[in-house]
Amino acid sequence: MIGTVDRSRLVLSTSDGNVELTSLPSGRTRVTLQPRDASMYIPRWTCETSHPQEVEYFLNGASSFAWLCDAIARHEEPGEVRGVIQRQLFAYFAPEAYRHKRVLDFGCGSGASTFALASVLPEAEIVGLELDAARVDLCRKIAASRGTRNVRFLLSPSGDMLPPDLPRVDFIMLSAVYEHLLPAERRALMPRLWAQLNPGGVLFVNQTPHRWVPFEHHSTALWGINYLPDRLSLWYARRLSTANPGINRSADWNTHLRGGLRGGTERRIRAELTAGSANAGVILRPFAGGYRDRADYWLAGTSARFRTLKRVIAWSFRVCDALFETIPALNIDVAIRKEPPRRASGFRSAQ
Predict the structure, then answer these.
(1) Is this model's pTM higher than 0.85 or not?
(2) Same domain, 47 and 99
(3) Structural domain range at position 187
(4) Same structural domain for residues 59 and 109?
(5) How far, in whole angstroms, is CA 88 from its chain's centroid?
(6) At 215, which helix (H) or strand (E)?
(7) Which candidate among 44, 106, 161, 258 keeps its CA 20 to 30 Å from the CA of 182?
């Protein structure tokens, strides 16, 4: 990687194109991608960072040229990962509830969610767990660069196992993770995560697309694909999706699943967590900010546009939640508490 420098501008040259870093009056740095191939799919062309020294960490670690700005924005922009996590955490518990607790950030990727947790929960111990060794190395470099002391990162041994030295935890965060697990991984990993959670602890899920919404916004940007059989969904995505061609042109169905095509539901997630466990899972209601229920929580997170229509939608969500324990919004946003095992009744069934 070659860099050219003047007082306010640095250009990093890669095989896929140039990365231009421009100093801004605010003290931040603008990152701009300049691909050699104009047809390259790039989800985000520019972003800003307070840590320009980390750009090369991303390029040499776990982020490709095309996804560089997307990865940096997830770390840097308050409305991205940090905003989602902070809002969810403090809708269910006061800040002091997390003090001196251990929080597992499962599937932490490049660490955006882990560093967000470390920032908003400064008195908690945050453990980031990731399957990709390059990303674990990247996270450790970022932690050292920023001097973040309440985080550590562990490497998963495989896609369906947890490290043997992983400690028990009080909270688990799955931020934009569940949808990327293959079906077999979900069945294997979710009970193991549940076993790792202390009784009374809570597992949070956010940014996972709802399995049954009409518009699949996460991977394909196609209407109706959630209701089609797998083989027909594959055909539909390959021929009509213009989003993320690296995934959606693939003939391998597992590539589409790994990309996040099939999301989840609250009921399915809870069933996978508690499979074979004596500990029931309870879907919690948010209480902070005057929320009455999860429909209120959803409504408060939307913009002011079309407010009357959104109140009607919130009312329908309230009915769905009461009947089916689901809020059929675009994304799953749920907190599930691990109940202590039920005491035996003392009676035995007849043999």
Answers:
(1) yes
(2) no
(3) 81-211+263-290+330-338
(4) no
(5) 12
(6) strand 215-216
(7) 44
